[in-house]
């Protein structure tokens, strides 16, 4: 195993241990993780951490767990272009009538096509790209968030049962 993978694994273990040791209820921690994971799948790049923390606050879940979980996807950043493409394909398929997958990506795309004009066309592109991508991200994100909620709940309950917190009376 290379040094990079060892460091990555050590960071993941450290992050999971910090979630286990949080002084909060298991349901609160698991809820925060679920909101963080759900928003890490969305294409709302610049506001997903704020949205995850806001929903965790509204539903009285751990905001720290939400902030940690929304950034866990950065560990596997090299896989996200594939995930984002599949989210778009799923959303495109769901929104098209009759159902069909999107056309192939233009093979001649190069850096000359990336220009300020793209930023001006953001609103127009949101209808073509954003809505299918957002819908597909929810289709993949919701089951993943539910699975992460259940796993986190069991792990934190197990840890807190073995390591009870001292009660402060007074």
Q: Which secondary structure elements does this structure contain, and how are they paired or packed?
A:
Blueprint (H helix, E strand, L loop, with lengths): L2 H18 L5 H15 L7 H11 L4 H8 L9 H16 L20 H5 L1 H41 L8
Helix pairs in contact: 2-3, 2-4, 2-7, 3-4, 5-7
Notes on the protein architecture:
- The N and C termini lie far apart (51 Å).
- The model has no long low-confidence stretch (mean pLDDT 83).
- Helix 2 packs parallel to helix 4 and helix 3 runs antiparallel to helix 4.
- This protein has one domain.
- The longest helix has 41 residues.
- It has 7 helices and no strands.
- The protein is mainly α and 170 residues long.
Question: Can you give keywords for this protein?
Answer:
elongated; mainly alpha; 67% helix
Indicate the structural class: mainly alpha
Number of strands: 0
Task: Give the amount of beta strand, in percent.
Answer: under 5%
- Tally of discrete structural domains: 1
Uncertain runs: none
Mean pLDDT: 83
Task: Work out the radius of gyration.
Answer: 20 Å
Q: Which term fits the overall shape?
A: elongated
Please bin the fraction of helical residues. 55-70%
Termini separation (Å)?
Answer: 51 Å
Number of helices: 7
Task: Please outline the major beta sheet.
Answer: none
Provide a short characterization of the protein structure.
The protein has helices at residues 3-20, 26-40, 48-58, 63-70, 80-95, 116-120, 122-162. The chain is mainly α.
